[in-house]
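Researcher: Please predict.
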Amino acid sequence: MRTDLAERRRQARRERRARVERLAGTMAAPEVPLVWGAGWGARVTAAVWCVVVVVVADHPAEAGLAHPRPGPLVSSLVAGWICSWLALWRITADRDGVYIRRLWSTRFLPWSTISRVEMRHDGQLEFFGPGKPGKEPMAGLFSPPWLSRVLRRSDGRGQAAADTLTAMVRHGRLRPTVQAERALIGSGLVRWAVVLAAGLYGAAAFLHR
């Protein structure tokens, strides 16, 4: 059984390499940075989640922005971070490397530090490189393969992004020819998460007063 599993994995790797090489044969170096970000589905999900948090929040009537309570405040901060990540995540590839928008800042990965990019089962992209195993950066939140199967619809955007980035890693001539501007790279999500958390806390305080 282990032999069969190992052979299936080897076959999957061979098929992936062949698919990436076919893609590389049809690609040309983009004249603009490539950007992947949250789609309308993720943004609608984030908005619905915000409404649910406000409606079902366990918010004492006497708590408010002037007199915050630790429990509801922490819940609002967690919800603000999750919704910001869902709605505002971004991956930007330019001439020099890949920028990953994270909570505190945007992380930069030079092309030389990436060996391949894989699509995970949870919808995130994993960037493999020569660093320590288990420390591979992850980014994005595409529609997971299992969700596409449940919904019976094809959404290969995440796998296409992984294949495109891997082709650029292996073939330097396919990388974008320009450097991304700051507006495309984006800053850390923390300021948006804090603002959203304050809004959720205030809305819950108003609703449950």
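Model: The CA atoms of residues 46 and 82 lie 8 Å apart.
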